């Protein structure tokens, strides 16, 4: 087979697969609707879409309510999860420690901790506790 | 996004390119201005500029100099003066040939046909899509926030690398890998410092710019070697649209820059092998391999492969090769490696996934048992088209159908590097203490990015060899 024929065949197969995966990302996996939402909002809105609206609202609330240089811990999300990583990144210079001044509770209705009191909340399951 | 922000961001990119331009000029001299196309030069300038500025920032931290725009820029006064003086002293020598004859030759070569235009449009579409995807979201993917973005934020807010930076990372931020070289964090810090504020959406423009700059160089080098635009465009299109490659151009990890600098290093060695009088190819290669070690720990292994290939070439072609230039090349790359390694050693930091203490016969024997799992993961990527399209299948077909080309001429040195990569990374998996299933699942798709640009380059060379034979 001539090289030219091979090149055309490779290009054709390649392009079909490329467009297929592009279309899948945009239409099947919801990429397009996410991009439309991202384009039509400001920086805060973009972060809320990416992090998840409720989780981001709680992180923002925590930033306004925690004392400078204090520490926090999460409740309701796994330590090695993407949410925890985003939270640690977003909240820095607040530091996540084992024995924190604040607890940021994510979707854990009815959770309480001895020696801590609720100081802010989004709703019953999403709230912030402070060491008394 | 205000007009002021856009101005500052553009200025930061301009300064980065200017820094790279000066580095390129100082290490290569004026010849490249006559012989390398402008688009390739400016792309190299960006790639080297970001590397040079981040390494400068690392050096500033040794002298406890905080990161302010002026502090980072002032040390550049001397190289700028040196480059200007050299430029003035050399006068017009080495300027581009703009005679009518040269221009008509250039224009005749440049005439694009339908398929070329189609390929260029498709590449442009992918590039625009990547820029859009990068800057529409803040830094958000797992390692981008857990490792690189976090370090950049810490360094920026502290105004430099504080004395306890590495200890704090080890103590407070699990999985932040304090031992990783600081290319990506410091490039983000550089943009924050220039902007004067933390903005993790703006900063992501760095990554599609690396992608675009590399594609430009890749195309230019392939076109120079093959003399055909079509083949160069086809393989630039192939590389640009490999999903894993284009996705990683938008998220802010160090795997893509590593693959880019490594490929640059080897591509310019290859160019030098064909035209040994052009020593600037060797200098560009040395700088690229040095920067490859500055992006990620695996860069040391890759640079080692590059050095082995270069030495093998030098030994086999001894009478034609200037031994002194090979020695300087190796010393330069090794000095870069030593700078970071010694620093990390002094900090008492080790990599928990793979380090020298794991290299023992016990781990090797247990590693043999991991081979089926490793092979299984490898084939998943070869035949899983979702991330790589049909590239790895294409590479294997080209390899087995063109064995005589793979192991002949200067192409064989790149073939050796691909083989060393396969064996080297397999050994890392075998010796590592990390649970193998987890390690493979989390890393192999990223590790393949380290070799991908070079593998695409090699595939293009192989097809070009077939084409040459067909013509003959």
Question: What would a concise description of this structure say?
Answer:
Chain A has 132 residues and is an alpha/beta fold.
Bulk shape of chain A: elongated
Order of helices and strands of chain B: HHHHHHHHHHHHHHHHHHHHHHHH
Strand content of chain B: under 5%
Q: What characteristic shape of chain B results from the CA principal axes?
A: globular
Return the domain count of chain A. Answer: 2
Which spans of chain A have pLDDT < 50 for at least 5 consecutive residues? none
Largest protein interface, residues of each chain: A-B, 32 and 37 residues
Uncertain spans of chain B, ≥5 residues at pLDDT below 50?
none
- Rg of chain A is 22 Å
Percentage beta strand of chain A: 15-25%
- Largest sheet composition of chain B: none
List the helices and strands and how they pair.
The complex is a heterodimer of chains A (132) and B (472).
Chain A: H1 3-28, H2 31-39, H3 43-51, H4 53-65, E1 71-75, H5 82-91, E2 95-96, E3 102-105, E4 116-121, E5 127-131
Parallel strand pairs in A: 1-2, 1-3
Antiparallel strand pairs in A: 3-5, 4-5
Helix pairs in contact in A: 3-4, 4-5
Chain B: H1 3-28, H2 31-35, H3 38-62, H4 69-73, H5 77-90, H6 100-110, H7 114-135, H8 142-158, H9 165-172, H10 183-195, H11 206-226, H12 229-240, H13 243-247, H14 255-274, H15 279-295, H16 298-316, H17 323-347, H18 361-368, H19 371-383, H20 385-388, H21 391-401, H22 403-406, H23 411-431, H24 436-471
């Amino acid at each position: 087979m001539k090289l030219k024929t091979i090149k055309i065949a490779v290009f054709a197969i390649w392009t079909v697969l490329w467009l297929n995966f592009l279309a899948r990302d945009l239409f099947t996996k919801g990429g397009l609707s996410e991009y439309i939402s991202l384009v039509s909002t400001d920086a805060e809105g973009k972060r809320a879409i990416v992090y998840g609206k409720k989780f981001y609202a709680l992180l923002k609330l925590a930033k306004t309510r925690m004392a400078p240089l204090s520490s926090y811990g999460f409740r309701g999300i796994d330590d090695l999860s993407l949410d925890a990583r985003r939270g640690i990144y977003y909240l820095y210079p607040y530091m996540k420690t084992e024995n924190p001044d604040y607890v940021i509770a994510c979707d854990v209705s009815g959770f309480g901790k001895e020696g801590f009191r609720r100081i802010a909340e989004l709703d019953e399951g999403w709230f912030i506790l402070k060491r008394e | 996004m205000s007009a002021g922000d856009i101005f500052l961001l553009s200025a930061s990119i301009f300064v980065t390119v200017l820094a790279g331009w000066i580095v390129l000029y100082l290490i290569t001299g004026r010849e490249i201005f006559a012989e390398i196309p402008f688009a390739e030069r400016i792309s190299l300038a960006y790639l080297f500029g970001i590397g040079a500025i981040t390494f400068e920032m690392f050096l500033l931290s040794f002298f406890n100099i905080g990161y302010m725009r002026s502090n980072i820029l002032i040390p550049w006064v001397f190289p700028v003066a040196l480059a200007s003086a050299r430029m003035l002293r050399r006068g017009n020598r080495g300027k581009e040939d703009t005679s009518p004859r040269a221009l008509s030759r250039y224009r005749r070569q440049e005439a694009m046909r339908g398929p070329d235009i189609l390929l260029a449009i498709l590449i442009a579409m992918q590039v625009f899509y990547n820029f859009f995807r990068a800057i529409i979201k803040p830094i958000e993917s797992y390692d981008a926030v857990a490792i690189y973005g976090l370090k950049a934020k810490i360094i920026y807010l502290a105004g430099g690398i504080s004395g306890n930076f590495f200890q704090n990372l080890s103590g407070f931020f699990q999985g932040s890998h304090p031992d990783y070289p600081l290319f990506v964090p410091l490039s983000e810090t550089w943009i924050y410092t220039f902007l004067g504020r933390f903005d993790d959406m703006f900063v992501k423009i760095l990554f599609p710019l690396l992608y675009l700059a590399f594609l430009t160089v890749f195309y230019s080098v392939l076109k120079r070697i093959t003399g055909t635009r079509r083949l160069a465009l086809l393989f630039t299109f192939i590389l640009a649209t490999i999903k894993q490659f284009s996705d990683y151009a938008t998220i802010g990890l160090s795997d893509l820059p590593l693959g880019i600098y490594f490929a640059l290093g080897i591509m310019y060695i290859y160019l030098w092998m064909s035209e040994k009088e052009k020593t600037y190819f060797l200098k560009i290669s040395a700088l690229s391999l040095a920067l490859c070690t500055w992006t990620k720990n695996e860069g040391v292994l890759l640079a080692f492969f590059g050095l082995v290939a270069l030495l093998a070439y030098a030994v086999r072609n001894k009478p034609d090769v200037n031994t002194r230039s090979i020695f300087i090349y190796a010393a330069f790359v090794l000095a870069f490696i030593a700078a970071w390694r010694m620093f990390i050693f002094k900090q008492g930091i080790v990599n928990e996934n793979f380090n020298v203490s794991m290299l023992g016969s016990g781990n090797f024997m247990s590693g043999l048992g991991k081979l089926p799992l490793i092979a299984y993961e490898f084939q998943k990527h070869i035949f899983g088209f979702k991330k790589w399209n049909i590239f790895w299948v294409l590479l294997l077909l080209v390899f087995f159908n063109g064995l005589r080309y793979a192991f002949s001429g200067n192409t064989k040195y790149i073939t050796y590097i691909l083989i060393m990569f396969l064996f080297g990374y397999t050994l890392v998996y075998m010796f590592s203490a990390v649970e193998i299933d987890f390690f493979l699942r989390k890393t192999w798709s990223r590790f393949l990015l380290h070799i991908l640009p070079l593998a695409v380059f090699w595939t293009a060379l192989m097809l070009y060899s077939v084409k040459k034979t067909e013509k003959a």
